Amino acid sequence: MDTRTFYDELAPRYDLMYADWDASIARQGRALDALLKASLGPGPHTVLDSACGIGTQALGLAGLGHRVTGTDLSPLAAARAAREAAARGLTLPVAAADMRALPFPDASFDAVVCADNALPHLLTAEDVGAALAESRRVLRPGGLLLLSTRPYGELRRTRPASQAPYVRTGPEGRTVTFQLWHWHADGERYDVELFQLLPSGEGWSTTTSTATYWALPEEETSRYVRRAGFGEPVWHPAEDTGFHQPVLGARRPVVRTRSTE
Questions:
Q1: Do the domain assignments include residue 258?
Q2: How far is residue 64's CA from residue 245's CA, in Å, rounded to a whole number?
Q3: Domain holding 190: CATH number?
Q4: What is the tally of structural domains in the chain?
Q5: 148 and 158 part of one domain
Q6: Residue 66: Cβ-neighbour burial (10 angstroms; 0-12, 13-18, 19+)
């Protein structure tokens, strides 16, 4: 299953993977807002969420006053993000777009957010480099990239075969979500089978979606960020930020010209 199909299928039920999606929106928004303010000042800032999904991070940042635009490879996910924003009285322009070819002029944004393990869907060095180069291109000089992935340095060492089942209780009843991980022979890439068990009458209906990821450890990700022309990356541990994954921050350098007299 390709990445777009994976997220198109998940778009109607992605929120069921959270115990309280609205609480997660608020918590993740606060964590990213703090990183933005620490690097760029109080704002508000113009922010591109280049893998916005159904809006978890974009809605949180828009709710805190930032001027957020969302793009996603999945048109169904992006459309849902727009509907969720409208339902909350928030402004969130969205577009279906590939992070390797963003539909914006150079230097359009103060910050680019690429969160929630989105970059690892790109499976080659060329594609990772293209996505990071596009993020740099659309940032103004001095602008900030915030990128989050799973902690792949540890995961590459342990190569887990699954994630524990997660049970959510909501108005529709209980939903069970769990993942099986199938590591490739290269030890770097892995396939995820995502299962959701949804209440159906007196029983359950099961949906299964699959996607592939490239488990780039933190230092390798940092090297790609440097090669794309960013300044020195800094990793912010989850326990320091309150975000659910480690977050890399890196600035687009400001090119200063020497004055002549």
A1: no
A2: 21
A3: 2.20.25
A4: 2
A5: no
A6: buried
Give the pLDDT confidence of 87-107 residue by residue, as tens digits.
Answer: 999 999 999 999 999 999 999
Look up tokens 């940042």; give the residue. Answer: 61
Is there a contact between 114 and 47 (Cβ–Cβ < 8 Å)?
no
The range of the structural domain enclosing residue 185 comes to: 154-214
Rounded to the nearest 5°, which phi and psi values hold at 75? -65, -30
Per DSSP, the three-state class of 11 is coil
Regarding whether 39 and 24 lie in a shared domain, the answer is yes
In total, the chain counts a number of residues equal to: 261
Residue 119 and residue 247 share a domain: yes
Lowest mean pLDDT among 153-167, 206-220, 246-260: 246-260
- For residue 219, name the pLDDT band (cuts at 50, 70, 90): very high
Phi first, then psi, for residue 124 (nearest 5°) are: -130, 160
Residue 40 burial by Cβ neighbours in a 10 Å radius (0-12, 13-18, 19+): middle
Asked if residue 261 belongs to a domain, the reply is no
Is 259 domain-assigned? no
Pairing outcome for strands 139-148 and 94-96: unpaired
Do 9 and 43 reside in the same domain of the chain?
Answer: yes
Q: What pLDDT score was predicted for residue 260?
A: 47
